[in-house]
Amino acid sequence: MRRRELAWALFAGATVAPAQTTTAADELTARREQVKANGAALAKFEIPMATEPAFAFKAY
Amino acid sequence: MPSKHISSPEVFWLSIGELHAKLVAKEFSCQELTKAWLERLEKLGPKYNALAALLRKPSISKAKDIDKELKRDRVRGPLQGIPYGAKDLVSFAKFPTAWGAKPYAGQVFDEHARVVKKLDAAGSICVGKLAMVELAGGGGYRYAAASVNGPGLNPWDTGRWAGGSSSGPGSAVAAGLVPFALGSETWGSIVTPAAFCGVTGLRPTYGLVSRAGAMALSWTLDKIGPMCRSAVDCGIVLAAIAGGDSDDPGSAGKSFYYAPEYVRPNKEITIGYAPRDLELIADREVAKVFADTYAAFREMGFTMKEVALPEMPYSAAASTIIGCEASSIFEDLIASGKVEQLADQNQILGLKASFDYSARDYLKAMRVRRLVQEMFGKLFDGVDVLLAPSRINVASPVAQDMDADAGIVNRGVTLPTRGLRDLSAAGNLAGLPGLSMPCGFAGGLPLGMSVVSRPFQENLILGMGQRYQERTDWHKRRPKVD
């Protein structure tokens, strides 16, 4: 991060954070972050290539 | 009382077998019995927000038919003439099936769900649709009030939650408003209300009971199962509703014959458990109930062996699978904006956010799931069943935010293994059957212990449950209702 960006981030944090209230938009962001976190938790779990997904297509 | 023949409220606490014996002995008619339950459900169901719809007309009509059979001494089986309630997630032809959710209020189907048809064939009578958490809680709800019927209230303390998502079945069985009920579980929805309400609930093996005619939340995780007053009653109901069904793509095509008498002697059964998990429970009264339950199983002659699940992303996998499948199932609801009509803000946001999952996430979760199945295959080489608390807490206050653990866990304690703390997520991922039984009380509220086995070993866990309940009376305790 460049110094100018760091300064902006600190400034934004200092001015916005104290007045923060939880809005529906914030909560939706939080739920989206949870989706990302689930994906990240799964991504870091190593699986052998041969492991197929646990569902079976049935031809009939 | 609606009948001079049903003179005591004790009738509302009888087992399925006892009720049927009285019908066969003509101590009262099926019509008298059905009207008595209808009256009780109509009067007391709203007290717990347990009733979604009363099925007076069809149930009395069916009771008349049963009386004709019994008059001719045509005895079918233990469910003949026995009333029951069904979670509002299963369809009952020509009557509203709202799935607990405002956007689906007034929804009507032409046909009964397969489980209703099967119980109908066994002679059982559906007297009411029972309330549930909206859409079985698929978006992830934060408050007990996440239902078009209001918060499910616990008969042991109406300031507490009945549990979800099968809240109505849990509270109705606990309060003696129906002899048994049908619930459903995707991840915890039978086991949780069974534990919180002090009833016996069976989550069957995935694919053993048809879901045809029931709301889908997650095609690969949904199960329908009985919630009753005992393990024996669960076995009787499961025998009626289990079986293959070509209308359910997830059907295993297997039958179930209830035969607990063939379960091996206790000394030949090894139970896997994780006693150190109890150190994490902040409430020592709760921890003692579970410790006493482990001791009871040991005293019954079972071999107890400490086990632990390996480190795997169980919750992330279960959340991802439910999120992905629910986002497809409810795509129209979410995309149309009608999702905003749901009662719980967290559900709305959770369903919206589920659109963010990628195909890669879903496939990874389903691959993890395969490994979870393989893991259980190895774990069950060393033990026959797993025993763990159904929930590590009593029912929470109705207004409590479920995202807050409200001090139920000892944050300072770290354990060397993962124990069985993720058994709910892992067991559902692997489609394993689980029986939750009342095992004691803390602060006047019930607690439940679950027995989990390999797939299609329902007779084993039901037989163990029966033996435990022959030795204890937790399942016979009743809340003050009237």
Q: What does it look like?
A:
With 60 residues, chain A is an all-alpha fold. Chain A is 57% helix and 0% strand. Chain A starts with a helix and ends in a 17-residue tail after the last helix. The mean pLDDT of chain B is 96. In chain B, helix 5 packs parallel to helix 6 and helix 7 runs antiparallel to helix 14. By secondary structure, chain B is α/β, with parallel strands linked by helices. Chain B has an 11-stranded mixed β-sheet, with helices on both faces. Chain B has a two-stranded antiparallel sheet with strand order 4-5. Helix content of chain B is 34%, strand content 14%. In chain B, strand 9, helix 8 and strand 10 form a beta-alpha-beta unit. Chain B has a single domain, classed as Amidase signature (AS) enzymes. The chains are: A mainly alpha (60), B alpha/beta (482). At the A-B interface, helix 2 of A face helix 9, helix 11 and helix 12 of B.
Mean pLDDT of chain A: 74
Poorly predicted runs of chain B are none
Cα separation of the termini of chain A? 57 Å
Oligomeric composition of the shown chains = heterodimer
Average pLDDT score of chain B: 96
Report the count of strand segments of chain B: 13
The helix fraction of chain B, in percent, is 25-40%
Beta-strand percentage of chain A? under 5%
Stated plainly, the CATH topology of chain B is called Amidase signature (AS) enzymes
CATH architecture descriptor text of chain B = Alpha-Beta Complex
Question: Using DSSP, what is the number of strands of chain A?
Answer: 0
CATH superfamily caption of chain B: Amidase signature (AS) domain
Principal-axis shape of chain B equals globular
Low-confidence residue ranges of chain A: 1-19
Structure summarized in a few sentences:
Chain A is mainly α.
Fold topology:
The complex is a heterodimer of chains A (60) and B (482).
Chain A: H1 3-16, H2 24-43
Chain B: H1 16-24, H2 30-44, E1 51-54, H3 56-71, E2 83-87, H4 114-121, E3 125-130, E4 153-154, E5 157-161, H5 167-174, E6 181-185, H6 191-197, E7 200-203, E8 223-228, H7 231-241, E9 270-273, H8 284-299, E10 303-306, H9 314-329, H10 331-336, H11 345-353, H12 359-382, E11 385-389, H13 423-429, E12 434-442, E13 445-453, H14 458-471
Parallel strand pairs in B: 2-3, 2-6, 9-10, 9-11
Antiparallel strand pairs in B: 1-3, 4-5, 6-8, 7-8, 7-12, 11-13, 12-13
Helix pairs in contact in B: 2-3, 5-6, 7-14, 9-12, 9-13
